[in-house]
Design brief:
Layout: H1 2-20, E1 26-35, H2 41-50, E2 57-59, E3 66-69, H3 83-91, H4 94-102, H5 115-121, H6 125-133, H7 137-149, E4 154-165, H8 167-188, H9 192-208, E5 210-221, H10 225-235, H11 242-250, E6 257-264, H12 280-302, E7 310-314, E8 318-320, E9 333-341, E10 347-357, E11 382-389, E12 397-402
Parallel strand pairs: 1-2, 1-3, 1-4
Antiparallel strand pairs: 4-5, 5-6, 7-8, 7-12, 8-11, 9-10, 9-12, 10-11
């Protein structure tokens, strides 16, 4: 009986945890620019393709993930829109491909469906279908809501990854360690010092100099009432339809991505504790993932439309699955949002309070933080204290308000 009750409790806890993870997310498509003429080009490409979608976003990836270039981007250090990046997205009709993915569009028949919209919008599937079938005002409001809060929050990030060659500095450091080992070996008449110096020196030369700088360009899918009306009336096909298929193909150019902005990682050296020196791909992935995560945080702080929300997973204490990967620190302030369903079925978010992380209870969820023995890596969540507001409930959403 005890085992049965324990199992039931665990299943209930898992269900509650799964429920807390269910909330509307923005969707993201991530691309990298691979400079084929630079050192570690193949390793950087392999590492990027292993980096998962940030868990605060829906995966909206397309088949093309890498753009190979053999030259440096023109004006890569400028803050303005980069013509080469925008031209690539436009020529490849990326915006229309993102729209097609939203409706699971079949390129051969033109057939579409609303399954992904229902799933990501957390709609009651039966009610959603019924309202759309009757073409009621509520059904149209649901479509508008899906467009505003789901399709219109589809983002593209293009990562221009550049290797920063610090081999001279690292080589100097490695040579000094090797020389020190030789001196100590001669002084003590103990050859183990020379062996140790060579070993540590080689590690410094092969790892400590690795750095990347990443320019991340942010774009947002334009989805307005006019485009939605054209799509649903002339291009959306619930069953194979040659006319609507042709309408979509002819109208691909009407869909566009709006440039939002750009940030650049600092290119700071990443700690490679926890990685063996004979694992260069892991070294490269850690450096790339840390830099990309850093850029995503900077983009969210710079551009409010890109900010993500996360649910409160418990109330006593207040906890959420966010941490240092999302830029959380002791000074970060979050607003607490309550999702409210309006009479027409649309969702709005009311601000009901603010919370702040508790020092020493901030989760270090950066890539490989546990392997390097970072403080807070094993917490599993960040714990907060209430700053203002009324009583909160599990499942309410939090969104960063100010930082630093």
């Amino acid at each position: 009986m005890a085992a049965i009750f324990l199992c039931a409790a665990q299943m209930n806890a898992q269900q509650q945890d799964d429920d807390a993870r269910k909330y509307r997310r923005s969707s993201i498509y991530s691309v990298m620019i691979n400079h084929t003429d630079q050192k570690y080009a193949s390793e950087i490409k392999e590492a990027f393709l292993q980096i998962p979608v940030p868990d605060k976003f829906n995966d909206h990836m397309l088949s093309v993930r890498v753009l190979n270039l053999n030259t440096k981007l023109d004006g890569a250090n400028r803050n303005k829109e980069n013509k080469e990046v925008s031209d690539f997205l436009s020529k490849n009709k990326v915006a229309s491909r993102l729209v097609g993915k939203w409706f699971d569009r079949d390129n051969y028949t033109g057939q579409c469906d609303m399954e992904l919209v229902k799933e990501r919008g957390l709609y009651n599937a039966t009610e959603f279908d019924k309202q759309l079938a009757t073409r009621s005002a509520r059904g149209m409001a649901l479509l508008q809501d899906a467009g505003e809060d789901l399709i219109g929050n589809t983002f593209v990030i293009v990562n221009d990854i550049r290797y920063v060659d610090k081999s001279k500095a690292s080589s100097t450091g490695g040579s000094l360690l090797k020389a020190f080992g030789s001196v100590m070996s001669a002084y003590t008449n103990n050859s183990s010092y020379e062996s140790l110096g060579n070993s540590v020196g080689s590690m410094v030369e092969s790892i400590k100099g690795f750095r990347v700088k990443i320019n991340t360009f942010l774009y947002r899918l334009v989805w307005n009432e006019e485009q939605a009306a054209i799509f649903y009336k002339k291009q959306y096909a619930a069953k194979p339809d040659e006319t609507k298929k042709a309408n979509f193909e002819k109208g691909r150019g009407q869909y566009e991505l709006r440039y939002v902005g750009k940030v650049e990682s600092s290119g700071g050296t990443t700690s490679f504790m926890g990685i063996n020196e004979d694992e260069p791909v892991m070294m490269v992935r850690k450096a790339c993932q840390r830099a990309i995560d850093e850029n995503v945080v900077d983009l969210q702080r710079s551009y409010e439309e890109f900010r993500t929300k996360s649910p409160l997973v418990s109330i006593e204490p207040l906890t959420a699955y966010v941490g240092m990967k999302e830029g959380v620190n002791v000074n970060t302030l979050f607003e607490v949002l309550e999702p409210v369903e309006l009479e027409n079925g649309k969702i709005k978010y009311d601000v009901v309070g603010t919370i702040r992380p508790i020092p020493n209870l901030i989760w270090d969820n950066r890539y490989m933080a546990a392997e390097e023995g970072a403080q807070g890596a094993n917490l599993g969540f960040t714990t907060f204290r209430k700053v203002s507001g009324r009583e909160f409930s599990k499942g309410m959403l939090i969104r960063e308000k100010t930082s630093r």
